């Protein structure tokens, strides 16, 4: 049943990712893309519902995982939206001649900038800062190519101020790098978020917080006890027993998202209050989020946004895990023991969790034993899982922001693709990572650029970024058997 619920959540998240990201790049139907990429997990879900604990045929499942991403990529490319380009007179005449036999397409949307405004735009690029050579006009973007003559920070600040003096806040000015390493300026519409009633966002956040507190309290009871819903209706006072799990989970989520919010406000980036997501089953929540409403001004801000949440969540999770493990029980290791079995958790599935468990239990925990987790320990372990998931260096996850800020947009995308392959390989070692690997496959590999996407980080942030990636490895990798035999 847990696998089916996770599959439903994965399907919802996948549809949202495709709708928000991939749908803007292709004309292929969203439902078709979703169906293709979800085929492997749908097949696994049907197998679990039909045949229970019998293992599915590995060749068939592996074939689906190989074929479906290839078909998905082909369908995306088949409906790829062509860029709007300036055509020559000959090509225009040829196009007009061939268009006689075809129906006339709908008129394209107006260009981002009128032709007569280009001269004003050219004056925004001093030759001593950025030697402008060419301007490409697109419907929703102006691409300015040239040679960088000053430091990225000086060049972006100068050009941005000049564009604002000429056009006001009409455009977002981005200094970024192409695949060939050439620095370019791009101008795109500044779609400022619509003004909302003052305090309305915080009222909604408070309402979702209270609702999620209720669902996690109920989940805390159902996770650790043999209680049924009729018993809860007849004795509602026993809900208090679920507060340990609930308060621990809510503290981890709240601190994590408030750290995101504080980092955004520190860099003067508009952001929404933390919004919690309640679910009336399983864990009681699928997390919380802060909506960032504008691009990061530079890579330093992007790094701080990426690191603040996972670091704060990890710091809060550590004492919660420690206290919870100290109040947990040691049980015999069985075939059902795993990293996701709260009644028989095998701590050797994670290096960090194995070390924490050994520190908490000492010689009481041996190789042939598992842990029956206390409710607070479950909350702490979920905090570690959320930390690891968000530190994954893929796309717009926090880890994606970190590697983007450290190695640039294209370097970060390459690291993200490598991370996907490594997580997919880990599925053959620990099947618990299957849904995780699928979720990473569906995410876009590229992060959105910062406004100044060329200025590099300082040494302190680079070091903190490497520490964050090392923490990810400690949480995700299983304890090697040779070390386990010595440790336990």
UniProtKB/TrEMBL annotation:
One function term, GO molecular function aspect? peptidase activity
Q: Which regions span the lipid bilayer?
A: 29-49, 61-79, 202-224, 236-255, 301-325, 371-397, 418-443, 463-483
Example GO BP = proteolysis
Report the subcellular localization.
Answer: Membrane
Pfam families per UniProt: Peptidase_M50
Q: Which CDD domains match?
A: S2P-M50_like_2
How the protein sits in the membrane? Multi-pass membrane protein
Q: Which InterPro entries match?
A: EGY1-like, Peptidase_M50
Give the source's domain of life in one word: Bacteria
GO cellular component, as recorded:
membrane
Keyword annotations from UniProtKB, A to Z? Hydrolase, Membrane, Protease, Transit peptide, Transmembrane, Transmembrane helix
Q: Please list the residue ranges annotated as the Peptidase M50 domain.
A: 246-424
Q: Which cofactor does it need?
A: Zn(2+)
The family assignment reads: Belongs to the peptidase M50B family.
Protein name, UniProt field:
Site-2 protease family protein
Organism listed in the record? Leptolyngbya cf. ectocarpi LEGE 11479
